[in-house]
Amino acid sequence: MNIFIKSHHLDITDKMNQEVHDKLDKCTRHFDQIQSIHVTLSKDGSDSQRKDAYKAEAILRVAGQEMFVKSSADDIYHAIGDMADMLTRQVRKHKTRLERQGVKHRGRHVEMSDTADVDLDDVELYEFDDEKRV
């Protein structure tokens, strides 16, 4: 998974970078088919008396879908945490939808079904002719 971080009217420190990576690791624990996450951290203006001064936005891409979340807070770290929590909820919801649709084996972790308990002596084998059937 690739995490791309950019900023707008804000300098990204190592602590902010580490915080984004730590918080977004939760998403990868829930769903391993994430292709990329683009995060934008910004300051909402030069007015220091404004309540929501920092904003964190993320676009997460999985096969066939994009998820977008936006969070605002007084503190950049609270905005990052809220953004990551919202994204984690969307990822879990997406995964649940896929499982309900019967697409359970798309991830890396494929569990063996009850076929391991089948006795191979009871299985009937069919032979097919190599001729083309009309």
Feature tags:
134 residues; alpha+beta; 4-stranded mixed beta sheet; 31% helix; elongated
Walkthrough of the structure:
With 134 residues, this protein is α+β, with helices and mostly antiparallel strands. The chain has helices at residues 14-30, 76-100; strands at residues 2-8, 34-43, 54-62, 65-73. Strand 3 (54-62) and strand 4 form a beta hairpin. Helix 1 (14-30) packs parallel to helix 2 (76-100). The longest helix is centred in the middle third of the chain and has 25 residues, at 76-100. The radius of gyration is 23 Å and the shape is elongated. The mean pLDDT is 80.
Summarize the structure.
By secondary structure, this protein is α+β, with helices and mostly antiparallel strands.
Q: What is the strand and helix layout of this fold?
A:
Blueprint: E1 2-8, H1 14-30, E2 34-43, E3 54-62, E4 65-73, H2 76-100
Parallel strand pairs: 1-2
Antiparallel strand pairs: 2-3, 3-4
Helix pairs in contact: 1-2
